[in-house]
């Protein structure tokens, strides 16, 4: 329907920043399990994806803000491309409007891997129609899920 919905979004704010860069990072999660959502998992002592934390820390050390949306939505619906794309775009909209120190002309990019590639790819595809006011500098998509039924098997 191309209508905004609500989702949880985690924002990491760098200690030192010029306010000019925002990374929308769709972390790899491939589950319809609500407790696997990034906002929950990133705050769990048992979170085992150290590379995700390293990726976030690297971006922060370069002065970039990092937004990690629960791109599968409030019901952890996996995979729902349009919903995931909307969640990503809405999270970027929200962060740009918060006043956490991001410049009005901040550059922003998408990054997604594995399950996160679904959300990033759909966000890139839907941006012009759903969020034309956003102008992404680019998108990096890896571990692309090309056959969803094979992923579920």
How does this structure look, described?
The protein is α/β, with parallel strands linked by helices and 153 residues long. The protein has one domain (9-152): Rossmann fold (3-Layer(aba) Sandwich), CATH 3.40.50. It contains five helices and five strands, in the order ββααβαβαβα. It has a five-stranded mixed β-sheet with strand order 1-3-2-4-5, with helices on both faces. Helix 3 crosses helix 4. Keywords: Hydrolase. This is Lipase. GO terms for molecular function: triacylglycerol lipase activity. InterPro entries: AB_hydrolase_fold, Lipase_secreted. It comes from Hortaea werneckii (Black yeast).
Could you give a short account of the major beta sheet?
5 strands, mixed
Order of helices and strands: EEHHEHEHEH
Counted up, domains total 1
Helix content: 25-40%
Total beta strands:
5
What fraction of the residues are assigned to beta strands by DSSP?
A: 15-25%
Structure in a nutshell:
This protein is an alpha/beta fold and 153 residues long. Helix content is 35%, strand content 18%. Helix 3 (81-96) packs across helix 4 (115-130).
Question: What keyword list fits this structure?
Answer:
single chain, Rossmann fold, alpha/beta, globular, 5 strands
What is the element layout, followed by pairings?
Blueprint: E1 9-12, E2 21-26, H1 38-41, H2 50-61, E3 65-69, H3 81-96, E4 107-113, H4 115-130, E5 138-142, H5 148-152
Parallel strand pairs: 2-3, 2-4, 4-5
Antiparallel strand pairs: 1-3
């Amino acid at each position: 329907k191309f209508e905004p919905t609500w989702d949880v979004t985690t924002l990491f704010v760098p200690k030192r920043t010029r306010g000019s860069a925002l990374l929308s990072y769709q972390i790899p999660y491939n589950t319809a399990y609500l407790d696997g959502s990034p906002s929950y998992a990133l705050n769990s002592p048992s979170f085992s994806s150290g590379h995700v934390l390293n990726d976030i820390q690297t971006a922060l050390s370069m002065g970039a803000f990092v937004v990690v949306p629960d791109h599968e939505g409030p019901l952890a619906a996996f995979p729902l491309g349009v919903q995931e794309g909307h969640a990503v775009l809405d999270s970027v909209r929200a962060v740009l409007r918060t006043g956490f120190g991001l410049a009005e002309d901040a550059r922003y990019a998408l990054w997604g891997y594995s399950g996160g590639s679904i959300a990033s790819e759909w966000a890139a595809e839907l941006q012009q129609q759903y969020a034309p006011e956003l102008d992404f500098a680019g998108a990096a998509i890896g571990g692309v899920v090309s056959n969803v039924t094979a992923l579920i098997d």
